[in-house]
Amino acid sequence: MSDRNAQPGSPDKEPASEDQAGRTALGNTERAEAATTPGEPGPRPTLGRLFLENLWAANTFTVTLLSLVLAMVVGAILMIISDPEVLATYGYITARPSDAINASWTLVSEAYANLFKGSVFDPAATTVNAALSPISETLTYTAPLVFTGLSVALAFRGGLFNIGAQGQATMGVILAALAGFLLPLPPGLHLLVAVLAGALGGAIWGFVPGILKARTGAHEVINTIMLNYIAVYFLTWLIVQNGVQDPTRTDAISRPVDASAQLPRLFGDGLRAHAGIILAVLATWAVAWLLNRSTLGFELRAVGANPDAARTAGISVTRTYVLIMVFAGALAGLGGSQMVLGTTAAALTPLVVAQIGFDGILVALLGRVKPWGVALAALLFGALQAGGNRMQSYSGISLELVTVLQALIVIFIAAPALVKAIFQLRAARTARLQTSLAKGW
Questions:
Q1: 355 domain residue, yes or no
Q2: CA atoms within 13 A on the CB side of 202
Q3: Do the domain assignments include residue 187?
Q4: pLDDT at 268
Q5: What is the mean pLDDT of residues 178-193?
Q6: Structural domain span for residue 223
């Protein structure tokens, strides 16, 4: 017996009438069409709105900028802590907080103002040379860092960690200087030979760990570190040898490089910037072309990504490893030659190379091992070094604090997840942050 209260069309009750079934089918069809038919497109967001939406996203530019801000904030705290007079005002901060705030602001603002004036532009400059001096100093420090940074970056893209840029730069500066004061050549040709000698010295010092890695599997990090020591002690021994040491001096210094082998200055004799920065830009372009446009660059990146797969594809991993280290060594050697053929020094000394090889590692990591990124990172480091000299002279800030700033910048940029968490950045739409330095951003 059927239930009189049952609703028509219920699946477990009485069947629906034909009219009800038709109306139900028509309604289902209309709903399906409404679901599948795209709606009216909404208004497109304006360019300004897109910019604001992506400004606080975790993209490369935002993370780099915020990393600089974080480094400057931490650096400001270190300045305050290291200054006894400013730190003393915090002893009675509850009674007179304005003293501590004003003293801290004066110290930090003057220090960073001098950093800017010493590296970019001094508004108080009254002559052309004084106005160009900050940028000239920045370019002078930048040129060798570009070469050593490219050296480390190129090896990294090929799957090798070149810790030996310091030793390769040392051998480069040795051969460049020897060619500069031992070979009696005419101007122009003398400079060309000296520059090529510097590249050759670095290439030889890069070939050794490259062939050992390729033939025996010896780890390039250990080999390059040991070769750094050998190059440094070889330089120390060579300087005091007859024919190399300056006969008018009793200390460890070589004969000066001839003027015909010196790189020409860009802004005249009153400023130190020289043509080495032009060579650095050309080298950056050449490395970018090599990596992205050439067959060798493709093989290099393939070996760096997966040596076994590259070998299966017919690429000679042994040959590629050797070429990587030779090219990396040549670049570091060119960076070393800048130290004696440019305006930093005119003769060999035990510390003529400074720390450009080790700084090149930081520059490469900061530039995400990409050629143009390395060039920009070298420019930043050059500005910090140039401005740091003025900070020390005018503000009494320790020069070592500039090194701390460099380290902080690298730490924050190398850890984008940390910056993203601190500032609560949204995920970038067009690119994801990657922690793998070999792949870049």
A1: yes
A2: 35
A3: yes
A4: 84
A5: 94
A6: 143-378
